[in-house]
Amino acid sequence: MATTTRVYVARLAGLAVFDPNGDLVGRVRDAVARVTSQPPRVVGIVAEMPMRRRIFLPIGRVTSIDNESVMLNTGTLNLRRFEKRPGEMLVLEELLDRRVTIADRDKPATVLDVAMEPDRTGEWKLTRLAVREVTGRLSRRGQIHQVEWDEVQGLLTPVAEQGTESLLAVLEKMRPADLAHALQEMPDPRRNEVAKALDDERLADVIAELPEQDQVEIIALLDRERAADVLEEMDPDDAADLLAELPQVEQQVLLDLMEPDESASVRALMIYAEGTAGSVMTSEPVVLTPDATVAEALARVREPQVSPAVAAQVFVARAPMATPTGRYLGMVHFQRLLREPPAAMLGGIVDNDIDPLEPESTLADITRRMATYNLVAMPVVDAGDRLLGAVTVDDLLDHLLPEDWRERHG
């Protein structure tokens, strides 16, 4: 194998895996080791393919590993979903942040990374660890040591609690949907530890990508004040969907703990019947007045917190701008904004020849109309022509797909 002789597993995470033709197979998510031998023998890697299917790649299929990619040799890939067998261990999931003892120093430490390297026969084994001493002082971080596998105690014993700092560093660059899938693959105790360790904004993004049952379980883990903070970070429509899964008493408690301006938009969405435009719309589209310029509109859609579906168009309405707005006038698509002079006013280029949705419009009606006009979002207005929100294609798909489409074995 043309590769470096020692590879730290945490640095493998996220690397692209290519077949001999240079086609992307997926990305590394973990390494699999067999704990029946000491030190444990690495038997393969777990790669995540498009559509978030995780498969097992035997270590014998790997021809090279460098800082940017993992290369495979020829042969047929087994596309069966990966499932850990008895006697196997997922290195990153089960060892990172584990509390251990450095034997010769009799000092507690946590695992930061695990190295694997081939022996004389070519078998890859877990041989060394990077560990940080636990000092007991909040103001000082302990020394980092490189130690052999057999110089550490407590690596394979059951643990009541496992830290999250190093694993979070590995997961940091993952998209929310991929991180949500990674959480689903973890045992429930580990999933819960990682979820609780995420900051409010990141956790809100991840929860929105989980199946409803997992959303409810994670929110239930948090104290009520933090649960309310996470709900504030979620898009109002996602927060409303999650709250709808909770008992009514708990809904009211969490809504009361949220900031009034944050809870108001969520309460407004919860009044609509399930399966209607009102129940699936976002109440925070990009809204500007007709005297706003193209330059102002482009600045708004470039804001990082605006999702691609919401940024695809600007809705034009009379003041006030917060939903429900003044009278709805129409919308301007992103492509039209790119073709117009920066100083042009939105009122002069607004598209108003497509009738908006009513809050009671059904999902079937919304789907037909969005497909007919090739739209990624449609406005929702009330009887007084005030803009209430917009139904985006991503939220529409969430409600059209089978309920279990996010499930781990779906």
The coarse silhouette is elongated
What is the name of the CATH superfamily of the domain at 287-398? CBS-domain
Q: Tell me the structural class.
A: alpha+beta
Distance from N terminus to C terminus (CA atoms, Å) equals 36 Å
- Rg estimate, integer Å: 26 Å
Question: What is the class of the domain at 287-398 in the CATH system?
Answer: Alpha Beta
Return the average pLDDT rounded to an integer. Answer: 90
* Beta strands, count: 18
Q: Helical proportion?
A: 25-40%
Can you characterise this structure?
This protein is an alpha+beta fold. Among the domains are: 7-87, Roll (SH3 type barrels), CATH 2.30.30; 185-271, MgtE N-terminal fold (Alpha Horseshoe); 287-398, CBS-domain, CATH 3.10.580.10. Helix content is 33%, strand content 24%. Helix 4 packs across helix 6 (200-207) and helix 8 crosses helix 10. The protein is elongated. This is Magnesium transporter MgtE N-terminal domain-containing protein.
